[in-house]
Amino acid sequence: MSTETTSLPATGRLKTDEMIINMGPQHPATHGVLRLLVTLDGEFVKHVEPVIGHLHRAQEWQGQNRTWFQYQALIDRVDYLSGMFTSWALCRAAEKIDGTEIPLRAEYMRVMVAEMNRITSHLLWLGTYLIDLGAMFGFPFYPFREREKLLDLLEAISGQRMMFNYIRIGGVQAEAPPGWFARLKAFTEEFPQRVDEYEAIVTQNPIFLKRTKGVGILKKQVAMDYGVTGPSLRASGVPFDLRKVKPYSVYDRLNFEVPVFDGDGDTWDRYMCRIREMRQSNEIIKQCMEQIPGGSSDELREKRKACNSCDKADCPNCGGDLRIMTKKQNAGLRIKAGEGFAAVESPRGTLGCYIISTGGDTAYRIKWRNPSFSNLAVLPVLLLDHPIADIMAIFGSIDVILPDVDR
Amino acid sequence: MSEGHEPEKAEAKDELKAGPFGQFLEEHGIPSRRLPDSCGVETIELDGKHLEAAMKRLRNSHEIALNFLVSVAGVDSPETYDSVYHLWSYSNLNELVVKVRVPKASVPEDRLPLVPSLAPFWPAANWHERETYDLVGIRYVGHPYLRRILNPWDWEGHPLRRDYKQLVDALNDKNQFSMR
């Protein structure tokens, strides 16, 4: 009589085995194409191996084989939700090597569009994250309403909805169109109430709390060892934000706070950190509109009628700090020989660009330090011993974008 | 398109004076050589065999605290293969660039240059070293899982080498300037 299928081991428990499950790369909740090889013990995750590279577009190779002028248009595609930041990192590194001075008005314009872009990125994260958690009641339409308003403004100033190519080596591409500052002002005034609306729905929602409180705890030391940056790091209690720690551009003239949480951060802390960041970004935009030299584009246009927009360097209405570009934008754009590393604080963390230039019209080597790449590396630690249902809740909370991982 | 892009060879062979981090390492018996600063950031060259000890010192020292490994980059320079480490700190403003250079003449044909891995004691290096291995072809000795990460696992060659040739030019093989 065969009893093999029914016999129990000596311990009296059912014999169990680990099971390997493949998630993705076409999983709808992976924000692109991420493949996870998950080893499960029952319902609990024992090991995860992220398999990346499905969206690899050889951006570093392109940098060696495209001219600077071509490449700065291409690079927005690395992180398509926050294209301003990738352009900015490239431009800062190139300007550092080249020694290019940026006019003050261009710096303020850069900060403004970048902070708008940060808000749009966080809003998209908020909407999709609620879907990841299973909130299928149409919540994403709330954040997307505001996101569309901001994208309209960014489109008005740069000509593109998401691939802006607005921040250029030497300044910014164009002056704001008529009425742009007024529309942005109206937006910044209503936006805090909109954030209150999201919070009223989400923050203290009992289902949301059950899905996020105490889930996916990222210890401070682990975060630092893995090189995690951005809101995920600050939710774990490390006050590291480049805008405060190593202020670049005009951030040292602006008054804002960096939300930092005490102790080890869980998924809820990371959510809350981004919500507060959006409010701070809104404040930054307001201050920029007050401080920007020359005032709004409409005022400046009025003043320039006096000199007929002469564009001379010594003109009080056109030159000096009021210019927006200091380098000729054409195919002959060259960067001096040298090497340098520059970083900006993107919505996902420290976005760095390492350039080696030999003075030619292309780079000798460009290396990107993408925040998503380093943040994703910590995922196997975060998922350990969590049930399989929490995988997407935790993965969504570190706000990874796959084109940014794969380049 | 790629003419005249060889980096200029360092003309001045004068020894630069060691910077603060170089002095710190020397106090602990680790020799290093200072290179010209990259945009105002101290840059040192280390011998591969001292890399691990130096990195541990720099990371664990309380006052220097270079505990943030920003990136590991591989560079195919004209005469050497470089592994470039950018170190920052989470708690202060220190910055340092460390380079390990392997002369091309010392690498046998069909072999990859060898550099010790940081991944066993510094998880941040894990994926960055895999990427550098994948794209530039530097083998990190002691890495726990050195596999291709961005390219498919069966890819041949290392695309960011200067002498890399694509096997099939899918887009346009008639135009000699198109994709190579």
Would you give an account of this structure?
The complex is a heterodimer of chains A (407) and B (180). Chain A is an alpha+beta fold and 407 residues long. Chain A has a single domain, classed as Cytochrome-c3 Hydrogenase, chain B, CATH 1.10.645.10. In chain A, the strands form three sheets. In chain A, strands 1-2-3 form a three-stranded antiparallel beta sheet. A three-stranded antiparallel beta sheet of chain A has the order 6-7-8. In chain A, a hairpin with a 6-residue loop joins strand 7 and strand 8. In chain A, helix 3 packs antiparallel against helix 4, helix 4 runs antiparallel to helix 5 and helix 5 packs antiparallel against helix 6. Chain A is globular. The mean pLDDT of chain A is 86. Chain B has 180 residues and is an alpha/beta fold. Chain B has a domain of 105 residues: NADH:ubiquinone oxidoreductase Nqo5 subunit (Beta Polymerase, domain 2), CATH 3.30.460. Helix content of chain B is 17%, strand content 26%. Chain B has three helices and seven strands. Chain B starts with 19 loop residues before the first helix and ends in a 39-residue tail after the last strand. At the A-B interface, helix 1, strand 6, strand 7, strand 8 and helix 13 of A face strand 3 and helix 3 of B.
Could you tell me the strand content of chain A as a percent range?
5-15%
Using only C-alpha atoms, the radius of gyration of chain B works out to 18 Å
Overall strand count of chain A? 8
Helix content of chain A: 40-55%
Per CATH, what is the topology of the domain at 20-124 in chain B? Beta Polymerase, domain 2
Low-confidence stretches of chain A: none
Q: What count of helical segments of chain B does DSSP give?
A: 3
Overall residue-averaged pLDDT value of chain B: 82
Short description:
Chain A has 407 residues and is an alpha+beta fold. Chain A is built from 16 helices and eight strands. Chain B has a domain of 105 residues: NADH:ubiquinone oxidoreductase Nqo5 subunit (Beta Polymerase, domain 2), CATH 3.30.460.80.
